[in-house]
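Obj: model holo form, ligand = 4'-deoxy-4'-aminopyridoxal-5'-phosphate.
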Amino acid sequence: MSKFWSPFVKDLVPYVPGEQPKLTRLVKLNTNENPYGPSPKALEAMRAQLDDGLRLYPDPSGDQLRQAVADFYQVPSSHVFVGNGSDEVLAHAFHGLFQHGRPLLFPDISYSFYPVYCGLYGIPFEPIALDESFQIRIEDYDRPNGGIIFPNPNAPTGCLLPLEAIERLLQAHPDSVVLVDEAYIDFGGQTAVALVQRYPNLLVTQTLSKSRSLAGLRVGLAIGQPELIEALERIKNSFNSYPLDRVAIAGAAAAFADREYFQQTCTRVIESRELLVERMQALGFEVLPSAANFIFARHPQRDAAALAGALREQGIIVRHFKQPRIAQFLRITIGAPEQNQALLDALGSIL
Ligand code: PMP
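Output (holo structure tokens):
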């Protein structure tokens, strides 16, 4: 530890993101990016900002994007918050909505940034075990808490919790914020945004990194009643009064407006997923039911770490987690058809 560090930095355990290799020849199926690229209309809107916008500060309210999201979901723009990737939006939510001294509840197998934010903001937490089929069981959340958070579909399992279960959870915990992290909702799930008007304790977060293929732009958002949105605004304005740069606001707004491209590319990913699941099963893999742009699969006779290593030798990267209960699984992003085929060919030669 350096003498220049604040004492709390010594104990911070930061999040370790999936590998971003420098080599472009690799088939990169490890961080759930979208193979199809952003909407051409989003690219055009961003180019216009490069030509004529960067001299000026962005709009501190991000109104153009908030309105585009509000139009898409048919909610008032006062219900929308935008930030630099949903990671940042989540950080503000932990900071502003979960600091109550009671434990935050989340699944024991889930997005590994949650315990990191708890460490950063000193929030006690209690991981709740998934059931034997790797599903979230809402009855297990029936205990005192300072909030509840889970991804839907869950990551890295890909499993979806139906909207009726989310509604029951909201009703059972009227005094807690329930945050539904919908990073992957557009690949087959039903969004909880439909419940926001009825439940003041619901906050839904989403990202443009997956279904809108803008991971490099860093844009995320939250939708909830103004009482929750105001907490996020207060926190954000205490760090940086500009939520997003001008390129990001214009590109993300155009991406939300281009529904046709969004629907077409999501459909292609979903179709590829169904095909990949079938082929992986034919190779002997067990695959959890996925509503995301990735699958979570294990081979009953093969060690997952060894498989990941062998795939890597053939230039294909997938994600492997060391957590004991899931150490025999591989998380594999749905790529373009030729990437998925390269994966299947490689597995065929390894098995
Ligand atoms: N939530 C979940 C469940 C995720 O898997 C991710 C992506 N790693 C994020 C949030 C964050 O996405 P981003 O910061 O790119 O919006």
